[in-house]
What we know:
- The chain is an alpha+beta fold.
- The protein has one domain.
- It has 4 helices and 11 strands; from the N terminus they run αββββββββββααβα.
- Strands 1, 2, 3, 4, 5, 6, 7, 8, 9, 10 and 11 form an 11-stranded mixed β-sheet that branches.
- Strand 6 and strand 7 form a beta hairpin.
- The radius of gyration is 18 Å and the shape is globular.
- About 40% of the residues are buried.
Amino acid sequence: MRPLTILFSVLLGLAPVARAEVxxxxxxxxxxxxxxxxxxxxxxxxxxVWDLISHTVAVVSYSTxxxxxxxxxFGGYLDATAVTGQAGRSYAVFSAIAxxxxxxxxxxxxxxxxxxxxxxxxxTYFPRTIKGQSRSLNISSGPRVLESxxxxxxxQKRTAGANDLGLTQVQVISNxxxxxxxxxxxxxxxxxxxxxxxxxxxxxxxxxxxxxATAGEPPKH
Length: 221
């Protein structure tokens, strides 16, 4: 699969971005879980960090749950496709499917491309907003269903700041985790799955999203 930056450049007659850079979004995920005898909703704030060249995504989710400030980090490959619509409009579509004997997970995100400033002195084409849904069916325990809605908004300040410094995706995530840690957030893996039903619920959501992200394959150029 060809990089989105090249596809958009071909569609719009522009020169492709020569170096790998990140695009950073602020966002949220709202999930509803249905399992035997229990239904609950969960809202998470998130940082969505996309690498324009490698097509890897890294996400930091965080929330205050039952008085505990927790965060979770996961990432992997998503299929990224450029789709041309009417009147020259172009869209980026991100998707993934994870399927085993016990789980069936899907993710679909979409955003209309626009000019964004990736550095203080450079711009490119990428969505300013990305929205979509993910679904997870677990038939091994329950069964249970997890349905999530995702919404992300481009952060020009964070994106330009990271790219001006030449930070990698890993360094950006490390800085975001440090920022949350300084505010009192702790890695969800420090908590037992039985710490509270709400913390356990976040862990279930995180596991489903991690399965989706890690199920992807590197793009074929």
